Give the backbone structure.
Amino acid sequence: MPSDRKPDSRRRLKNGTRAFLVVLLVAAVGVATIGLPAIYGGSTTTAEATEGSVESYETISQAESDLDPADEVYLNDDGTAVLRYDDESDVNQLDLGMNASEGLVYMLVADDIEDEFEGEEFEEGSFSAILDQQGFSGNGSLVMQQPDEVTDLSVDVSGEVSDETNQFDATATGTFESDSASTGEVTTDGHVTASADRLETAGTVSAEDPTIAAGDGTSMEISLEDTSDGYTLDMAQEQDVSDWEADRWETREAAEQTLQEQYGMIAMQMGGTSDIQISEYEFEERSSGQHRLTLDFTVEYTGIDAGIEQQLAAALANDQSTDMSQAEAEDVAASVTELEIETFEFTMSESDGAVNVEWEIALANYDELTLAMLDVAESSDMSGEIPQEDIENARAAIEAQQAADLTWDIQWDASVEQTSSNELELDAELTSDTENWEAYIAELEANDIETPNDVTFSLTAETDGDQLAVDGQFEIDGEDLAGQAIDAMAQSAQSGPTGSTDAETEQFLTALSESDLEVARIDGDITSDSVRVEAGAKFEDMSKVTETFSDTVGISGVATETTDNTTSTYVYVDDMGDVDTASASKSDIEHLSVVDSETTVHEAGDWDEEFPEVDTDGMRNYLGLDAASAEEEEGEDDSDSVPGFGLGVGLAAIAGLLTTLVLRRRE
């Protein structure tokens, strides 16, 4: 029967045995979220990945210290024992399971939600995710009451990366309530097309701004062109000139002197020459103090490239943060002036409550400059913060882009309008595509460079009646994502704010890596009044992991059973150290961490209890590891993965939810 231990003692189950499995499950399922940024070139620290208000354990030793003592200890005569923890909890269902020899862990939590979502718009949601040796996938959905400020909304986002394609599409339309008393609209459209040695972009931006006073306004047109021995700048502008600067523009001669100061000095500083010609000039003096200037002029620069190279090379060679020789600095500087300006046109006008911007730019011959920038980054990284392998991989990828003539194209078209009926209307579209992607992948493979993992993802959000529904899924194909993620987790922890992780956590991460995670799965269903979260994982060898949780006893399994409002968790111990369990009494085992003054010890032969068995078959079935698949895994290494389930929410949030449900409930 349940013991009469104080409530604080009962909490040890929550903060101990549950913590043991939570740490394993969160590690197994959550490693993917922490590791993916490293796999795909992002940057995430452990602190960022786990940021939030979820209560958790900072170190493995902290969780281990809460594993003990037990409420009841049942000694067997064969050197084994059973630890029993009784928990008077109002959770509807709590199932914990572990089979150390099989490498299986499992948890199921189901409960009613009483006050947590009272008055909230949330109605229901579900998610599923799976990580195995062949990839990572998941899906999820969310249904909520349509927010009052949303009149209608439609979002559709999808993307794919494979050996054949790399593309992305996103559209969004919606109408929202707005408190703004003014009206106006912002629109933009354009594109960016980039290859290994050419960048082209063109686009427009228009905005209606009622704060802009009516009047002549301001306009500017700029054109910059490469010539055989320099550059030509053409500019036309119309603008107001205040009294305090009128003397700089009130005559043609004054305007020429002002332009010389603004643009001619550039040539002098670079050791070149400039020729400034004014083709149109008009200065209208006004009694209001805001005079009007109309000015068109051309500046021809000659011989400034040599000065640019000389000054840039000197700056790089003398910079103490870099480790570049004079010759290397000169090569970098030369690549800058080799950049070719094919087109550079920019116009801007502002008048009568509207601003309009338009541009067309094309730059070419910057392939050597791109590689030179890598040389600068490598030389600037004197502390070794950037791994040499990463720099070499980046250089090889750029060279592969050049060889394949890989081209990226991004196009957008968007508008946001504030209407007179106090509504904000959104209409936006963004697309991204590539040319010669297959050739690029072939170049990577030909040079033994790792290619990107195959990725597909989609996300939709739609209003329907008085509801807002969100659905999402993604799938990533890749071998040993779990191992890469665990390695990334360890590296992130060691490079955190403290400079290095604590010894216990490092020991756990090492053990986790050596345990070889084979598969981890999590599923959840949440409604406005209930929640159900189920999770499990299988490791090839859990022995090193279980050793990190206790220095005094060896744990072989965990099982639970619930009677009335009491959940009993049974921890099966197959090694009690130097204790002769056949003849031991409480005094013989008080030195163990699983025993304290309030623990009831049942000596071998003095008890007749039946304990729940570890549901190994149930855990295997949940993970899709039946006997047939187990035999197939042993005979065929390249077998298909367990069917994926996609992802609707980030695994960090899922793991956090699991931790919250298990650890947060306090009596």
Observations:
- The first helix runs from residue 7 to 39.
